[in-house]
Amino acid sequence: MKQRVLSGVVLTLFAAAVILFDRVFPLALNIAVGLISAAAVEELARALGLQRKWFLYAPSLLAAAAAPFCNDEFQFLIYCLYTLVVFAAMIVYHNETTFKEVAVLYSMVVLIPCALRTLVALRELNRAHGMFYVLIAVLSAWAADMGAYFAGTLFGKHKLCPEISPKKTIEGAIGGTLADGAVMVLCGLWFSQGVYQGSVEVNYWLLAAIGLLGSWVSILGDLSFSLIKRSCHIKDFGQVIPGHGGILDRFDSVIFTAPFVYLLATFFPLAGV
């Protein structure tokens, strides 16, 4: 548990640094998302045993790393090019790979960077307070995860989905939901009253909804990638983050919560004057 908490603190500090330096170096967020996307795809390719099949591995990493730096038009062009390269490679090297391998890797190269790129899109929704939106999208996943971990450890008795993730409990999920809702509202109070001394209003009802509903979206993301891990017969996607596993183990729920927050924030602003 000590390693898990320490790693969580380091990740939080990293996220805080990206947020604080956004005005000075706005590309920091794009770089962070690009590196996380590429690392996640790399871990997935390794889990599938595709790291030595360079004709799939190399273009997948390049596409994942490049997508967060592009607007919608150029991102579409990147994926068009990636599609041509990967399927041409599959035809040329058809004796060395299968359509199943290509299909799984291709779908993840599209899903992971596109989902994480919504963090960049969230910033652009409200240029004055966009990084607050990004913070909410990331914390809505991490707060739910930490709340579920501690509640499950202390009170967990009834399994939530034992065939996919044996350690997850119903009590943990409830604890994660309550913790997420509380953290979201507290973030709003800190941002409005602490940072801006009340001069900027936040939508506390929307923050509470993101916490309460986002925790279950987070669980959906976690269980989805747990299912992939079970099919690959691995416990974690990597060991980059002590106590957590790989990059994908830490950001699997963010892949689901970021688009969810973006969808809500598109129609209901989180913050304004």
Low-confidence stretches: none
Indicate the mean pLDDT. 87
The rounded distance between the terminal residues' Cα atoms is: 41 Å
Total count of strands: 4
Strand order of the largest sheet: 1-2
The largest sheet, given as strand count, sense and whether it forms a barrel, is: 2 strands, antiparallel
Counting helices, strands and paired strands, the structural category is mainly alpha
Order of helices and strands: HHHHHHEEHEHHHE
Strand content: under 5%
Overall form: globular
What is the radius of gyration computed over CA atoms, rounded to a whole number of angstroms? 19 Å
Word description of this protein:
- With 273 residues, this protein is mainly α.
- Helices cover 74% and strands 4% of the residues.
- It contains ten helices and four strands.
- It has helices spanning 2-20, 27-47, 54-66, 72-92, 99-125, 130-155, 170-195, 204-232, 247-251, 254-267, and strands at 159-161, 165-169, 201-202, 271-272.
- The strands form two sheets. Strands 1-2 form a two-stranded antiparallel ribbon.
- Helix 4 (72-92) runs antiparallel to helix 5.
- The longest helix has 29 residues, at 204-232.
- It is globular and about 65 Å long.
- The relative contact order is 0.14.
- The model has no long low-confidence stretch (mean pLDDT 87).
